[in-house]
Amino acid sequence: MSTLSPALYEQIVQFCEPHFRLSGERDTNLTIPLSGWDGYYRLDWSGSPHSFTVRLVEMLPPDRLQAVLRSLLVGYQDEETVAQLCQQIDADQGALVADGNIPFASYHQEWVRHWSQPRYRYDSRFVQLTLLLDKGPDAQDMRFVPDSQHHRYNSLPDLLNAVDEKAFVLLGSPGSGKTTLLRRLQWERAWAELKAASGQTSLLAPLSGYASKVPGEPPPEPARWLESQWQQMQQHHPTLPAFATMLQQGRLLLLLDGLNEIPHQDKTEYRARIEQWRQFLHETRYCGNTIIFSCRSLDYSAPLSGETVPVRQVRVEPLTPTQIEAFLHLYLAEGSGEVWDALRQDNRRLELFANPFFLRLLVDEVATTGDIPDGQAALLTGFVRRALSREINERHHRLFLPAAQLLSEEDYEQVTQAAAWATPYDLPDEGPLLPRLQHLAFAMQDQQTGEGGQVRVAEKAAWEMVAHGQARELIAAGIQLNVLDKDQARREILFFHQLLQEYFAARVLARRPEPERAAVPWRAAEMQPPLAEELARAGGERPAAAATGHRLGGDDGDGGGDERRPGSICGWLAAAQFDIGCPLRGRAGRAGERRAAPEDAAELVGAAGGRGQRLAGADCHGRGVGRGGRPALDAPQRATWRLPAAAVGGHPGRDVHHWGGQEPVCQRKTGASSNDRPL
Fold first, then answer.
1. Integer Cα distance of 429 and 448 in angstroms
2. Is 392 helix (H, G, I), strand (E, B) or coil?
3. Mind listing the pLDDT tens digit for each residue in 290-314?
4. Nearest to 222 by CA among 186, 251, 259, 189
5. How many CB atoms lie within 10 A of CB 435?
6. Exposed, middle or buried, 669 (CB in 10 Å: 0-12/13-18/19+)?
7. What is the maximum span of the chain, computed from C-alpha positions, in angstroms?
8. What is the pLDDT of residues 545-587, one digit of tens each?
9. Integer CA distances (angstroms), 589 to 210, 516, 570, 660, in order
10. What is the pTM of this model?
11. What are phi and psi of 415, to 5 degrees?
12. d(CA 259, CA 281)
């Protein structure tokens, strides 16, 4: 494959795409320039013009890519364009073999090659970044609002060039592309330095690793921890200068991924960790380094900003319906119309596919099977099936042959024969491959000590977690499937995406439910920190209790709650956008509906899917409902754990309910819901 700089890659795709609109044109235009190339018969000729062109450009070596460009000449203007593109291809290849005269050459070359892989593909046309204005903690309404002096940006470099500040937090839900944007920025900066060295460089570090090596001890100061991350890079690139020198001279772009994933036991400990980073920003404010954190929500990132060092919040916007339609047309061409017609009439699906990660999975599934999966679990199951088919049917990889003993003969035949699956969630699990990957995900989630997020473990620890005699082969197969990833510099194993990690862990949890994981103290006398301390810190406002995550007191500030108003539960659940696996979903989700009959409310609450504290990575607390449909402190706790059919191969799941720490009061069967979330 050709390793191309971002701008050149986009120019080549744009030039080639019009020549491959019809399937017949593809073979006609490529037969001569690719004659004798051994990869010709491995080309996938299917897909939209854009999809085919992207795959072709990523697959061709530099000399063949130049031959294809020259074969597409249609006139003098094209001749000049092609000559320039071919020259730039040569220049890019030269930069990849540059000697040590360029500062940090080997370091930048490594990141250029790494982030150029197809798995990290990125399209800036579908990115919108909103710079938020901080009105201060005393703001009467919303503290953070869109900055009217700045339009929306399509890339981080454009945003960074437009503002003077040097510290930022990139906000977005899982799958919105936060980590992808940080990787892209490192990739672009590495290319820029190879072409015109300025003596600057970047460091991308996962904050999930910001912890002490000694259990129970606080982590080191941020500067010391960053230095340790830098030293891991120096082991592979010994010519890198000392971290302290780079930091003091303002020559660093620090990309710190997962602010909300900093290990912590409770909110008090998290505040202490944030204060350490806030102090680091204060101490280094005059150095001139650019520092970008990523974070799931403002709840976690807002305390980072201070008077001396304001930290600008940047929100990654969900895809708009217009963008979703354009994305579908780009990657599905004529087939996009039917898919868009199905999506635009369903607000739930529009909300799901406003997430770029899931929209990409949808496009791949439709292109492969013609089906529109219903829900996150089906999308992720489809991803795993396609990955297995690719490795078995196209690449014939040895790890996926029955002789490797990672898949059984039955597993192998199920994939090779493209036989129908019993349910949208079945996977071939007779052999150890997928069950052991699920076990790994469960173990990684289980060791998490902060909010749900992506977990990394040392490679040797991953082998132990897999707990199998072929642990190394199983990890290698997971990487080959793009289910797992490996950080070569740190020798760490992680799932390729947090949502894949949660998906595999949820399949284990669904078969072996552990509802006690969601138990938390909710009574005033049992809460930690104590209720009085929380209220005193709030200064008259209604804070969110650290133990339960819901606000203290009712609407009238009396601290009470009307715990016997089941009719208001429907409205609160609908407003909170819970997944409701029962016939009441449609009724509760309609705009403006806030009341329901008591018997309906009881069914609705029983069907609301809660998400486990660690193994689902989100709010796990059953919440009582007070006046106005809001959570109230004194309402009895009711926690629900959805055991989705999606996670157990289509078998009916069970919802297990607890009221205020008592024994389970009911267990009832639920059918597979189209909106079940084992994530």
1. 26
2. helix
3. 999 999 988 888 889 888 888 999 9
4. 259
5. 17
6. exposed
7. 82
8. 655 555 555 443 333 333 333 333 333 233 333 233 333 333 3
9. 40, 29, 9, 27
10. 0.76
11. -80, -45
12. 14
